[in-house]
Write a structure and sequence with these properties.
Elements: H1 4-12, E1 17-18, E2 24-25, H2 61-65, H3 83-97, H4 104-107, H5 114-117, H6 133-145
Antiparallel strand pairs: 1-2
């Protein structure tokens, strides 16, 4: 999760806005599933327009699916992630299961066109095994044995 200072700069630049999951949601392709980098330059570059409207649908999938209840239903900045709980769980996954950081809040977020690319338009696949068995098997494997 970006620091609030870095995240606020990105919002001011028109890159998106915060969701209930405290992640920067970017329009329209990727939602919270992005990685940022930086390039320092003295070039005069035009600014992006500030984004109007909220991307978060407030579906609360991130809140209900969080395995350690580190999120609540309040919008940023009132509803902040319990960082110690979240980071502790991710550390446990890495230490005991060789798994990457948790990322459930990112995985279940319905924002972003990339959901169609990976056939995950229906958030029900995270609740129901029927019709999504291959996904559930893969997720369980990673949680049980790690990525190797």
């Amino acid at each position: 999760m970006p620091s609030s200072r870095t995240g606020m700069r990105r919002i001011w630049r028109g890159w998106g806005n915060f969701g209930v999951n405290n992640m920067l949601l970017t329009p329209p392709q990727f939602g919270p599933r992005v990685r940022f980098g930086a390039v320092l330059t003295t070039a005069a570059l035009p600014a992006d327009p500030v984004m109007e409207g909220q991307l978060c649908t407030r579906c609360m999938e991130c809140v209900t699916q969080c395995p350690v209840q580190a999120l609540n239903e309040y919008d940023y900045p009132d509803g902040l992630t319990e960082k110690v709980t979240c980071a502790g769980y991710s550390q446990t996954l890495g230490k005991h299961y060789r798994a990457p950081p948790c990322g459930v809040c990112i995985k279940v977020c319905p924002v972003g066109e990339d959901r169609m690319r990976y056939h995950r338009e229906d958030p029900g696949i995270y609740h129901n095994r029927a019709g999504a068995e291959k996904y559930h098997r893969a997720w369980e494997h990673v949680r049980r044995y790690g990525v190797k």
